[in-house]
Amino acid sequence: MFEFNQKNNSLLDDQLAESGLEMNLGPAAIGAIVGGAASLFGGISGSQQAAEQNSRAQANYEAQKRAAEKQAQQTNEYNARVFEADKENYRRQREYEWTTAIKQWQYNSEVQDYSYLQTAKQYLSSVENTQQQLTYNSVAAMEAQEQEQASLAEILNSAAFQQEGMLIESLQNEGRAALLQAGGSRAKAIQSTVAEQGRNAAILSASLLSAGRQSQRNMRDIEMGRYADDLQARNAMMIAPERLPDIPQPIKPPERVFVEPMEATAEYIPAPMQQNIFAPLVSGVGSAAQGLMAGYDPSTNKFFGK
After folding, report:
1. Angle between helices 27-178 and 184-236 (to 10 degrees)
2. CA dihedral in degrees (229, 232, 234, 239; nearest 10)?
3. DSSP state letter for 306
4. Any domain includes 127
């Protein structure tokens, strides 16, 4: 509880007397003064508390701003490292793919050349085999023709011997017929000999004509057989290979366009609401003034007494 002592009261009376005011304090005046002092103290205390709260809010605000700026800086540094890593990885991958494409192109070209050479060798071997087969067919046909000609010659030689024998036999028969008695028996014998000789000659001539025609047919069959064998050999021969067009060289694709990451900015931190530090002080001063005025008598220019 706030208490006035007599010494303090006398000092206050002296000061009021010097100022033209006389102080005669009663309970009401003392209460008004005590209330005003309390209000003034409360205003000062409220102003100090508001200032402290404002200071803590401002410090918290500054700390949040620093944290947001640090976070933005770290994010930008990380995004920059990721961006550079992406470019480097793309460069390495592009170089690897290009090297692989060149090697694959070279390999495919070598395989194509090798396949063509192997096919060309097979074709040359096929041509050689065909030539050998045609030569064999020609030799076989010539031998068959020679055999056929030999057979026909044997037939002709046999016919010549047979004709010579028939002539001798005919002369012998004619001689025997001439030794017969004259008259009809002799004439009949000679006529019969001549008729038999003519019949045998006709048979021999017909046989020779048939053998010649058969020989001609055999010669044609030999030629046709040779033609068929040659045609089969040529059909079995490979078609001449053609070299394929060169495999086109690989082309580098367009380079990728990189877009730098957007720079991160600090998160917006709203400024703290500042409390008015003068409002509690003004309120305390006003309350103190009202309390003092409540204990002051304007008509007597003195505080209310006992």
Report:
1. 170
2. -170
3. -
4. yes
Could you tell me if residue 7 is inside a domain?
no
Taking only Cα atoms into account, the Rg of the chain, rounded to an integer number of angstroms, comes to 74
Amino acid at position 275, single letter: Q
Q: What is the pLDDT of residue 7?
A: 43
Domain around 28: 23-238+278-303
* Residue 296, beta-bridge partner list: 303
Q: 149-205 pLDDT, tens per residue?
A: 888 888 777 777 776 666 666 666 655 555 554 445 555 655 666 666 667 677 777
Tell me how far CA of residue 28 lies from CA of 17, 66, 293, 302, in angstroms: 20, 56, 11, 13
Q: Is the pTM here over 0.90, yes or no?
A: no
Nearest to 33 by CA among 9, 15, 49: 9
Residue 264 lies in a domain: no
Domain assignment present for residue 15? The answer is no
Distance of alpha carbon 239 from alpha carbon 116, whole angstroms: 13
> Of all helices (H) and strands (E), which one includes residue 303?
strand 302-303
Where do we find the tokens 């609401």? 273
Q: How far is CA 29 from its chain centroid? A: 100
Give residues with Cβ within 8 angstroms of 250, minimum separation 6.
98, 101, 102, 104, 105
- Sign of the dihedral through C-alpha 299, 300, 301, 306: negative
